[in-house]
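Feature request, filed as a ticket because there's no other form

It would be nice if the structure record came with a short human-readable summary line next to the tokens. Right now we just get the raw output. Example of a typical job, pasted below so the devs can see what we mean:
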Amino acid sequence: MDLFVQILIGFGLATACGFRVFIPLWALSLLSLAGKVELVESFQWIGSTPAFIIFSVAVLVEIGVYYIPILDNFIDLVATPFAVVASAVVMSSYIEGIDPLIKYTLLLIASGTVTAVTKSLMAGVRGMSTSLTGGLGNGVVSTLEWILSIVLTVGVLLFSFVIAFYHSSAIADLLFKKKKKKRIVSFLHYSFLMQIIFCKRILRCRK
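Raw output as currently delivered:
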């Protein structure tokens, strides 16, 4: 997969971590277990069964605690560092074949800026909801967050599948064209040899 596409996918998943920490990790774990996503060698533990179970429980707990008044605002403060770390892990597991300095610079930008800003923005929205509705409207904000995280995660991963399919189709088409070209050349070569043999026989008959 092209490096630019890998970076786009990494930033998309990093943004999803800003809405919910564990949903992108859970999705990567599931797809890795199913053999649909190939992770960087040092992060293949994400695709293990124990990791998938842990991420599944973490997703349910994380979604649930945000529906508890007062506690949801406290979780926002605690979850921000975890979201930054999660986005760094997600990007590291997906991006390979790049200079380490560039890679870690991108990780710093994605996790330190994109994820942190997204998390802080939603924390501000939740704080405003608490002030205006006394916490009654926080459930709507929480629902919006996990839905956005799922939609963004699924959308980004589907985009990666489409790109991979396009590349595989292009390669298959190129191989088919090469084989077709070889067949045409072989046929012309065979025809040329047959014409030479035919001409030689005619000359012999005349002698």
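Something like this underneath would help us a lot:
The chain has one domain: 3-172.
Residues 3-172 form one domain.
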